[in-house]
Structure to design on (641 residues):
């Protein structure tokens, strides 16, 4: 029976490893526990032993390749009559980790009145950071809680509201975070801010996106004179009719939606062996609220007029800030636009909102000197300029369509043929 | 059930001989015939290359280095290029991490940092870890000054290799390499951080402080 040997988990925060050297080749006979391959992660070189005796059938990962924890490295045809293979992924990991015998598995929650052994420094830190020592896993000698443990716990801790739902009693306590982190020893005066569930979601999503998707960036310099003219011409009547001011955002969304129609590859998702170009255009708008980043979605943005877009955007932004968005309104975007507003600086590249393949980020609009040809003469003139930065996923989108898409948005905004 | 950490002082010993001594302990530990061990020693001048070493981080040819009495060897450990020499306390940790319930390489690296920091602080030098960079650094502000490098190997969950702490070593001996591949990090030593206040027996004191810090963490459960 062929057995897949997977990259074992080398630690909570280890998410991948690089195959540095194969110690066996296809066709080799290997003994139980014989080292098969060397895998390197930061500062650590690990030999992965064979979980079963047999013949090396197929090496699946070449030297120099980096793979995620759990990825199959090699197939071994187990020898007939050899003992049942051990769970392959556990090769080193669980080999001899008798949980109950280890200091880490001490079930502190069961003895709530008693504080676990801790170093004096750890106790002081726990007090300062308002960490309950009973909920900290001690890694020091004999399970003693160390300063490091308290710091780690403080950085992993969820807000108290989330506590009742978490698993009580012994067993693996902290869920494995979806992002990596390195420990840090708290210094006097440091402020420990527990992650809110939203912060954690954002953190996990950003790491996921950067991991799965090769981001490429490109920036357009856009002359907003035309848009400014249209906006100024309709400003007063728009505000009278709708009760709120007309911002630049609806113009950018409107132009982007039209460009997405022409470049469907930017309105897409990557699947295992295909790319889906989506029929519907639902635009997510990144909004910073008091509680953090949320991305409400304008559904069927291509069916809305400029005024309709402005109305929908105003409504979503208001409800995002007053926390009255429903879960459905945060789902299903096919493309995202981030508008950091007045303090957005010149430009910046946003991280793609998975499973989409592109995100635009608006820079601030600033009057800048630019060169224009007026009456056949080159002249330096002052124009309101916005930099618009596109991050796109090179798995799905090559440079030509991405550049074409962004260039088209620029054309649409500079032509400024908008009906209000 | 693992016993207390066994600390041995091997004195000045060539890198290959120390590797052999280390592998003997690994095999013994694996067979259940030996304890968890911390080998403390010094190397004659040698440059070791980790598996992740970028060849560009070795700034002189091997021949030129050999002419100056510096060996170049390849080590089966993580991390990049490093230099060892007299005045540097090297510690090799042969520990069955799974048997200790400590099967997590990052936690292991962080624990080595924490123990070295504890030992170094005891000697009067403020030290810290730097997130994102394994190793121990002088805590003073300015350009990071590295005091100790760390790189470990794992056979299953048995650890080998470990750390190198600059005690009286002259940091300029690192000139032929880009230490650990970190071009913006300066190497330092305890004696340099202490300046005039460094005691004459600093190496002995460091050895004792390091042995104590690691023995305290890895004491018999």
């Amino acid at each position: 029976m062929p057995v897949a040997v997977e990259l074992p988990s080398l630690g909570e925060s280890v998410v991948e490893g690089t195959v540095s050297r194969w110690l066996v080749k296809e066709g080799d006979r290997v003994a139980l526990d014989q080292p098969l391959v060397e895998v390197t992660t930061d500062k650590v070189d690990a030999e992965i032993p064979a979980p079963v005796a047999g013949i090396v059938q197929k090496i699946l990962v070449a030297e120099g390749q980096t793979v995620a924890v759990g990825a199959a490295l090699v197939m071994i045809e187990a020898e007939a009559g050899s003992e049942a293979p051990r769970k392959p992924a556990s090769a080193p990991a669980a080999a001899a980790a008798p949980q109950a015998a280890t200091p880490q598995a001490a079930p502190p929650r069961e003895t709530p009145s008693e504080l676990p052994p801790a170093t004096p420094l750890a106790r002081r830190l726990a007090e300062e950071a308002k960490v309950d020592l009973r909920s900290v896993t001690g890694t020091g000698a004999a399970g003693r809680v160390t300063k490091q443990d308290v710091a780690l716990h403080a950085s992993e801790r969820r807000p108290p509201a989330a506590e009742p739902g978490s698993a009580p009693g012994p067993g693996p306590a902290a869920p494995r975070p979806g992002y990596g982190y390195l420990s840090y020893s708290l210094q006097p005066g440091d402020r420990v801010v527990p992650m809110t569930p939203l912060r954690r979601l954002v953190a996990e999503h950003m790491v996921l996106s950067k991991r799965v998707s090769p981001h490429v960036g490109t920036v357009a310099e856009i002359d907003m004179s035309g848009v400014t003219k249209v906006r100024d011409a309709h400003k007063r009547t728009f505000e009278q009719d709708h009760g709120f001011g007309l911002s630049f955002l609806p113009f950018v969304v409107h132009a982007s939606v039209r460009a997405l129609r022409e470049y469907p590859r930017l309105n897409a998702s990557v699947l295992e062996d295909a790319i889906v170009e989506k029929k519907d255009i639902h635009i997510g708008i990144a909004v910073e609220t008091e509680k953090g980043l949320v991305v409400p979605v304008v559904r069927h943005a291509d069916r809305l007029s400029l005024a309709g877009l402005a109305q929908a955007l105003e409504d979503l932004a208001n409800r995002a800030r007053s926390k009255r968005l429903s879960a459905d309104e945060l789902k299903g975007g096919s493309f995202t636009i981030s508008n950091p507003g007045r303090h957005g600086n010149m430009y910046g590249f946003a991280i793609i909102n998975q499973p989409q393949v592109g995100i635009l980020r608006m820079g601030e609009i600033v009057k800048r000197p630019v060169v224009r040809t007026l009456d056949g003469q080159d002249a330096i003139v002052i124009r309101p300029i916005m930099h618009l930065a596109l991050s796109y996923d090179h798995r799905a989108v090559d440079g030509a369509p991405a550049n074409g898409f962004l260039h088209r948005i620029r054309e649409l905004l500079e032509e400024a043929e908008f009906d209000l | 059930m693992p016993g207390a950490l066994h600390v041995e002082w091997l004195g000045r010993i060539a890198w290959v001989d120390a590797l052999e001594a280390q592998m003997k302990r690994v095999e013994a530990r694996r067979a259940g015939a030996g304890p968890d061990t911390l080998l403390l020693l010094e190397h004659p001048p040698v440059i070791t290359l980790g598996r992740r070493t970028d060849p560009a981080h070795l700034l002189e040819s091997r021949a030129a280095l050999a002419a100056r009495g510096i060996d170049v060897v390849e080590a089966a450990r993580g991390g990049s290029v490093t230099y060892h020499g007299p005045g540097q306390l090297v510690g090799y940790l042969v520990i069955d991490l799974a048997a200790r319930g400590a099967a997590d390489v990052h936690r292991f690296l962080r624990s080595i940092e924490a123990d070295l920091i504890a030992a170094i602080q005891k000697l009067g030098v403020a030290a810290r870890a730097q997130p994102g960079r394994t190793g121990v650094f002088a805590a003073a502000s300015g350009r990071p000054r590295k005091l100790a490098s760390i790189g470990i190997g794992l056979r299953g969950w048995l650890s080998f290799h470990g750390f190198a702490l600059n005690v009286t070593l002259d940091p300029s001996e690192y000139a032929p390499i880009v230490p650990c591949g970190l071009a913006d990090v300066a190497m330092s030593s305890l004696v340099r951080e202490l300046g005039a206040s460094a005691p004459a027996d600093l190496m002995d004191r460091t050895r004792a402080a390091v042995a104590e810090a690691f023995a305290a963490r890895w004491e018999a459960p």
DSSP finds seven helices and 18 strands in chain A. Chain A has three domains: 2-95, 103-195, 202-415. Chain A touches chain B through 47 residues (CB under 8 Å). Residues 84-113, 156-176 of chain A have pLDDT under 50 and may be disordered.
